[in-house]
């Protein structure tokens, strides 16, 4: 039985999915002919808004075609899909409603943003924070106050009166990959997390703790116009609403979360039929590891965005002209790279995320063997 890993590449100019063969401790190799790409300008120039509905449709269509090619080239009983992972364009944030659905293109953020209102908001933040606190914030998050990062974009969005009605629909800000995983895993009644990698590229993550930076969150959740979809709960004839909590939990890219470690469920969390059960039969018969997304340049540059000072082994992959992908090099000192800094291996995002997934699957297998012994 051949083990197949699906690697999804969500880029600015194309969406792709490629099948790789995972051989345990051996090399990971791309399966010839098992790949599909859809050209798509995913991000709108200057505004930085993401064509989110087109992107989500393209991702699922790429998986459709990649699985079709697998069925065409391999006997059904000769392979199993064991994992799916993402290399996503950084950074990306998408506002979703209480059903986990995007509320609209305007309520999206990316590092391609260069809008005038966001640039003005950057200057307001710089003036408000002051040099000393600004430097401390930079040291914690690895990011300056810049239009490419999420904090000024989020503040500009909520500060715009034209976005007021849309803002009231927002339950959380998620990433492209976490929206996909929420859909595929049966819309479980959980807060879908995002990876340290994707969170770090927002410029709001404390790289030393793996948690959202307190000051950055405060600057976001106290900005003009901030609001969240409100759940009204009656208690002793009094109504109250929860406080603002708009950012998702953060986890390692291969976090051992039950709803991401089983096959695609037949039913959604609310009991309705999960359409992906029929659509992708390869993902329902055996446990399939669903990995949260890794930022494309982050997967190459900082070992998937792991936390500074962590003792966890990390993967440093040089992906230029690697075919097939072979060998892993571990390191312990990640680095933070700004969105505009060029990183060797940018075109090898499939390769790097596949190696991260393979290393994780190997570690899980070794742990299981140790438990048996």
UniProtKB/TrEMBL annotation:
Keywords: Kinase, Transferase
Stretches assigned to the Carbohydrate kinase FGGY N-terminal domain: 47-221
GO terms assigned for molecular function: kinase activity
Pfam families, per database record: FGGY_N
InterPro entries: ATPase_NBD, FGGY_Carb_Kinase, FGGY_N
PANTHER family: GLUCONOKINASE, SUGAR KINASE
Identification of the protein by name: Carbohydrate kinase FGGY N-terminal domain-containing protein
Organism of provenance: Discostella pseudostelligera
